[in-house]
Amino acid sequence: MKFRKRSPKTSINWDNFAFFASEWEDSVIGNIDEEYNRLVEHLHYSSTEAESLQVAKRRLSSETLELIRQLGIARAAGNYQQTSELAKLCREAIKEDLKERRAAVMNEAAEAGKSTRKARRSFANFKTKMTSLRRPDGTVTASRRAMEKVIYDFYSDLFDSHVYLPTHHLRQDEYIAPSVLPSEIRHAITSMKDYDIGNYRPICLLSVIYKLFTRVILNRIGRILDEGQPCEQAGFRRGFSTIDHIHTLTRLIEVSREYKMPLCLTFIDLKKAFDTAETEAVIEALGNQAVPTQYIRMLRELYDSFTTRISPFYKEECLREST
């Protein structure tokens, strides 16, 4: 019985990668797509030159692998009794090896001061599958072509602009955005019912360079945006909690009941609040928050004339025990 060899794992020496990446030279190409492709090729070349082989730890012991080999021989020979006995031994041996591997990973995480919860979570297996979707008329379809039509119509309507907003004119300032530092890039890297399409959270596959660039911009303007928020805004802010507001609201209800005063509370829950936000409204809000115009112009160009390709896929993620 032959065992299929796994592809060797590689690791990247980030110092070498930074050295090769720093050899990038800007060109005068007028086509931004060609310039982007050239940058991606250079980054691929840098990562290839900086990678080295990584020794992977085996999950199964040599004794277990020998039992699996004997099981294959017995099955090929048609010896059903021996096959049954060896299969039982293999299951027990594999179970014991994986148990020891889990314990070793947990010990390594504990000794390194890492989160044992994350280490335990890495052993979980996740399988999800989109089998059917409901049409707007209430009928349910399991056809892949019809499901793609439902997905296309849903996100086309979701991302379409339903409100006319005039173009917000940006003010002129003297601010010049500095060059992106390597430290900013490192910081950016680290830092329902199945048939209802509205219950699915899409995975947006964006360019890695795009995500790093927008993360750098967010890190730069984050302090400006945070300082411009009123003290009543507690959600989505670092260092703030809605617990204080909940306590205030509870106290307000108690006082109204104590003095028998009428009280009216309004709770607003916007459907797909972030996805339905108008781009020009966001641009105007950034301008009102005194964000430098150059950053606002960059963000506007990122959202100008962009397109999205939607494709449903089956997710089958089984993390290895050694990860």
From TrEMBL:
Signal peptide feature range: none
Pfam hit, one: RVT_1
Domain Reverse transcriptase: 197-315
Family annotation (CDD domains): RT_nLTR_like
Protein name, entry field: Reverse transcriptase domain-containing protein
